[in-house]
C-alpha cells in the first residue's frame, strides 16, 4: 500500500484528556502474556498469485485452493509462519455461508503449513468501487491496478457492514488458527482522512460486542492523521503499524511506539527501492521482537513488483522488484534474500 514516511511523535493518546469514548481494550499485561505465548511471527501480506484483488481471491468461482496451497508452501519453505490476508464484505454479501466456508478452507490450508493468519476486514486503499463476478485484468506494469477499497466511497457504517463484521467475527471468535483481527487497513487513506472515523469507531464497537478471543487492532500508518491515530492507539489490544522507511527511521518509529507499553506488530514493510529491504529491516524487527509482515509473497496479478508511482507501460520486469519474494514457479527474485530469510527463521 502506498504510504508516507512513518515516524510518530508521541501523540496525545497518552494523555488522560482524550476526547473519544474508550473501547475496553485488553490490559497491557494480558497483551504481553498473549504475545509471549507465540513464536516470533514473520510472514507476508498474502493474496494468491492468480488473484488481482480480494474479490477474486474469495468469490466462489475464483477461489483457488491449489494456488493458495502452492503459494503458502513457498512461504513455509523459507520459514515464514504467518500471513496477513484481506477479506471483502462483498464476497460475504453474495453468499455468507459459502464465504465463511472458504475462510475455513483457507485456514485449514494455512494451518497445514504451520502458518497463522491475521485477517483484515476493511481497507481505504486503491479503487473505491467494486463489481461482483469476473474481475478486471491487470493494467500492464501498474502497481495494484485492481485492488479494492472496502467498502469504498460508501464508507459509512451500515447495517450490512455490521452484519458482515459480527457474522465473521462470531463464527471465528475462538479459532486458534487466527492470530489477530486487523479491523481496518489504513483508515483515512485515499484522501478520506477523518471521513473514515465513523466506520473506524463502529468496527471497534462491533468487535467489542462480539468479544473475540483474538486481539483486535487497526494499524497506524500516517503521522498526519492525528485524530485517527489517537483512536487507533487507544483502542487496539496490540499496536500494529506500517513502515516503509530505512532501518534508522524504522527504529525511531519502534522506539516511539514502545511508549504505549503494548506488543508491536509491523503489518507492512519492505519496499526495496525506498530503502526498506529484507537485509536491513527483517533483522531489526527480529532483534526488537516485533512481528514482521512484508508486502507481497508471490508475483502475480497485483503487479506489486512495480513501484507505487512508477508504472512500466512495457510490462518488463523491473531490475529491482518493489515488493514480493517469489515468481509463480517458486524461483525467488533474490537468492541472497532467501538465504537471509532462512537464516533468520531457522530454516537453514
UniProtKB/TrEMBL annotation:
Alphabetized InterPro entries for the sequence: GH
Top-rank taxon: Bacteria
Gene Ontology terms for molecular function: hydrolase activity, acting on glycosyl bonds
Source organism of this protein record: Chitinophaga oryziterrae
Stated name of the protein: 1,4-beta-xylanase
GO BP, sorted A to Z: xylan catabolic process
Keyword annotations from UniProtKB, A to Z: Carbohydrate metabolism, Glycosidase, Hydrolase, Polysaccharide degradation, Signal, Xylan degradation
Signal peptide: 1-21
Entry-linked SUPFAM superfamilies: (Trans)glycosidases
Source species taxonomy: Bacteria, Pseudomonadati, Bacteroidota, Chitinophagia, Chitinophagales
Amino acid at each position: 500500500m502506498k504510504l508516507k514516511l512513518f515516524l510518530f511523535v508521541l501523540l496525545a493518546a497518552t494523555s488522560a484528556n482524550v476526547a473519544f469514548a474508550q473501547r475496553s481494550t485488553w490490559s497491557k499485561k494480558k497483551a504481553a502474556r498473549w504475545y509471549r505465548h507465540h513464536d516470533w511471527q514473520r510472514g507476508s501480506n498474502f493474496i494468491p498469485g492468480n488473484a488481482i484483488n480480494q474479490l477474486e481471491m474469495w468469490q466462489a468461482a475464483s477461489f483457488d485452493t491449489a494456488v493458495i496451497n502452492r503459494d503458502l508452501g513457498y512461504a513455509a519453505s523459507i520459514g515464514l509462519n504467518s500471513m496477513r490476508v484481506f477479506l471483502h464484505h462483498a464476497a460475504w454479501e453474495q453468499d455468507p455461508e459459502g464465504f465463511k466456508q472458504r475462510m475455513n478452507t483457507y485456514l485449514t490450508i494455512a494451518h497445514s503449513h504451520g502458518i497463522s493468519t491475521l485477517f483484515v476486514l476493511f481497507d481505504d486503499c486503491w479503487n473505491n468501487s467494486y463489481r461482483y463476478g469476473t474481475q478486471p485484468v491487470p493494467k500492464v506494469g501498474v502497481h495494484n491496478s485492481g485492488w479494492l477499497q472496502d467498502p469504498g466511497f460508501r464508507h459509512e457504517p451500515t447495517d450490512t457492514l455490521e452484519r458482515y463484521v459480527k457474522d465473521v467475527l462470531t463464527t471465528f471468535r475462538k479459532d486458534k488458527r487466527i492470530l489477530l483481527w486487523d479491523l481496518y487497513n489504513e483508515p483515512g487513506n485515499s484522501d478520506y482522512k477523518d471521513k473514515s472515523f465513523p466506520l473506524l469507531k463502529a468496527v471497534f464497537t462491533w468487535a467489542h460486542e462480539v468479544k473475540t478471543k483474538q486481539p483486535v487492532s487497526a494499524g497506524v500508518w500516517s503521522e498526519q492523521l492525528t485524530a485517527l491515530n489517537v483512536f487507533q492507539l487507544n483502542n487496539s489490544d496490540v499496536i500494529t503499524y506500517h513502515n516503509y522507511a530505512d532501518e534508522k527511521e524504522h527504529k525511531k518509529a519502534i522506539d516511539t511506539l514502545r511508549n504505549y507499553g503494548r506488543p508491536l506488530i509491523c503489518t507492512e514493510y519492505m519496499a526495496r527501492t525506498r530503502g526498506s529491504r529484507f537485509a536491513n529491516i527483517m533483522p531489526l524487527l527480529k532483534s526488537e521482537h516485533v512481528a514482521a509482515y512484508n508486502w507481497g509473497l508471490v508475483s502475480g496479478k497485483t503487479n506489486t513488483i512495480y513501484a507505487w508511482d512508477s508504472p512500466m507501460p512495457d510490462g518488463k520486469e523491473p531490475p529491482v522488484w518493489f515488493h514480493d519474494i517469489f515468481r509463480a514457479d517458486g524461483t525467488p527474485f533474490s537468492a541472497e534474500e532467501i538465504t537471509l530469510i532462512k537464516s533468520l527463521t531457522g530454516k537453514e
